[in-house]
Design a protein that fits this description.
- This protein has two domains: 3-70, no CATH class; 81-118, no CATH class.
- It has one helix and eight strands; from the N terminus they run E-E-E-E-H-E-E-E-E.
- The relative contact order is 0.11.
- The protein starts with a strand and ends in a 12-residue tail after the last strand.
- The chain has one helix at residues 43-70; strands spanning 3-6, 9-18, 24-28, 32-38, 81-84, 87-96, 102-106, 109-115.
- The strands form two sheets. The protein has a four-stranded mixed sheet, with helices on one face. The chain has a four-stranded mixed sheet with strand order 5-6-8-7, with no helix packed on it.
- The protein is an alpha/beta fold.
Length: 127
Amino acid sequence: MPKLEYGNTTIEYILYKQQRKDLKITVTLVNGVEVYAPFTAEDAKISTELKKKAPWIINKLNELNQVEASIQPKEFVSGEKLPYLGRNYRLKIHREPVDRPTLTFYQGQIHRNRPEKKDAKTNGGST
């Protein structure tokens, strides 16, 4: 993976060469820094352009790090709110004798039926 040294900061990026006229730089939470350059672009020219944009890239990376830190992991317990198609739904978990798990939407809630755990006494062992 190519790198750019800017002050004390090392910026790693993914370089894509494609048929285009100009240089495009994107910064995303999933892929980090991506650089889209024309096939004809020389590495020195790409590096020069990245150095010009380095403060902007570092700022965007810092913003994304703050977003990532604020994301709370899901526990998938009853009462937890889950986003779906622009709305939040409250999760309700039921333990029922079902063959396989199901998921349904009902009155603003997500209902999850999960199989009951079978204990050793009910598994058909006779003495």
